[in-house]
Amino acid sequence: MTRARLIRQWPLIVLPALLLGCTGEKPRIIEEKCSTCHPSSFVYKEKRTMPEWDRILFGMKARGLKITPGEEKQVRDILSRDFSRE
Length: 86
Ligand code: HEC
What we know:
- This protein has 86 residues and is an all-alpha fold.
- The protein has helices at 3-8, 10-23, 28-34, 41-44, 50-62, 69-82.
- It has one domain (3-82).
- It is built from 6 helices and no strands.
- Residues 20-24 have low confidence and may be disordered.
- The site of heme C has 14 residues, from helix 3, helix 4 and helix 5.
């Protein structure tokens, strides 16, 4: 690869690394469980009350979310800590 070509292609190398770096900041359990059917940004978009989150989690399970009770507790803990409002 010539030097000029390397310079032209740097975004192809750097941008995915940046994107991966960003997802590293997000809670892993939500990235794993909540990004298969829609982007996980659906989850971070809005703060909700815990009764609303419970209704959403129930709805996601009805749509086919596979989650163990332990994982669901982790997800609820993160939602109540960082994504809930009164
Ligand atoms: C089996 C597929 C599936 C999985 C897995 C899934 N969802 Fe969803 N989710 C959907 C679908 C389909 C919609 C969009 C349409 C709807 O609300 O009916 C949606 C919409 C949403 C919305 C937007 C609802 C609104 O009314 O604004 C939120 C918030 C959400 N999901 C949260 C989650 C969370 C949190 C998880 C992980 C615990 C999750 N989802 C995992 C299928 C899924």
